[in-house]
Amino acid sequence: MYKSIFIVKKMDCPSEKSLIEIRLGSIQTIKKLDFDLDKRKLTVFHLEKDEKIGKYLDELKLDSKLEKTIKLQDKNNEFVDDSQSQKKLLKTVLYINFGFFLFEIVAGIIANSMGLVADSLDMLSDSIVYSISLFAVGGSILLKKKVTKLAGSFQMLLAVIGFIEVLRRFLGFEKMPDFISMIGVASLAFIANMYCLYLFNKSKSEDAHMKASWIFTSNDLIVNIGVIISGFLVYLFNSSKPDLIIGGIVFIVVINGAIKILKLSK
Fold first, then answer.
1. Domain enclosing residue 47, as ranges
2. Distance from the Cα of residue 107 to its chain's centroid
3. SS3 assignment, position 71
4. Taking burial as the number of CB atoms within 10 A of a residue's CB, which of 5, 66, 70, 219 is the most buried?
5. 3-state class of 65 per DSSP?
6. 120 vs 99, which has greater pLDDT?
7. Per-residue pLDDT tens for 188-224?
8. Which own/partner contact pairs does 12-21 have at CB distance under 8 Å and 24+ positions apart?
9. What span, in angstroms and rounded, lies between the C-alpha atoms of 53 and 59?
């Protein structure tokens, strides 16, 4: 493992940081990038010496200069491989989300609630995303960005299909959903997602695929609140329309989250 330190004089804000991440993301030997915007310093951890790192930085015209390259010794390795902790975290949230997918899809069908069905599909989406992310842990930056793009694309597809289903049900006749089940199940899902979000915040990972997972979980909290609100509205207005409306809003939220995630993969 090598550590190369670059002074990048024109690296003043996050936009330059993003440019560097995008440009160097195609170099598969790079394992990690550390940025110090205040000191305008970039530290690159890479598996082998590669002249492309300096060449690609020069192409950005940010007045970059290689300060030094150091070969790290195993006994004094500054590169922290947190792949094991990431895997443990992703497995935990994967089990939680898939478990609630099964719970909510059954509860949604029994309660005849489109909001719960939408929430369950969102949980399924997250479960698949976390499964995909497990393959990216410990991989190159390029691989992680590819995984992030795949995750965002999958969520976008699922959201569009769900939104079409909401429109179909809205135009047809729908039985009244069970508002008690809606509120109760969505409240339990909210607690579960709060715990998942706590785990992601605790990890403090800057990897693109982990940021994507954080966005998914944040969206889930909004979804849970929406379903809880729709349950109360179904009760107040004695109508199934609030459930369908919230279901549609849920998928719009999911689409918005997918757009954010696709931006991370660029």
1. 2-76
2. 26
3. strand
4. 219
5. strand
6. 99
7. 999 998 998 888 777 766 555 566 667 767 878 888 9
8. 12/37, 12/40, 13/37, 16/60, 16/62, 19/60, 19/62, 20/57, 20/60, 20/62, 21/141
9. 10
Taking the C-alpha atoms of residue 46 and residue 26, their distance in angstroms, rounded to an integer, is 13
Do residues 22 and 153 share a domain?
A: no
DSSP 75: G
Looking at 76, 98, 133, the residue that finishes a domain is 76
Residue type for position 87? K
Together in a domain, 151 and 230: yes
Q: Which two tokens stand for residue 210?
A: 């982990």
| 67 lies in the same domain as 87 | no
Regarding whether 104 and 56 lie in a shared domain, the answer is no
Question: Are 85 and 108 spatial neighbours (Cβ–Cβ below 8 Å)?
Answer: no
Closest CA to 265 of 156, 163, 161, 162: 156
Selection from 45, 37, 38 nearest residue 16 by Cα: 37
| 14 pLDDT more than 60 | no
Does 98 share its domain with 137? Answer: yes
Identify residue 140 by its one-letter amino acid code.
S
Total number of domains in the chain: 2
Query: CB within 8 A of 32, min separation 6: which ones?
Result: 44, 45, 79, 141
71 and 94 both lie in a single domain:
no
Whether 169 and 99 map to the same domain: the answer is yes
The SS3 assignment for 9 reads coil
- Considering the domain architecture, whether residues 57 and 113 belong to the same structural domain is answered as no
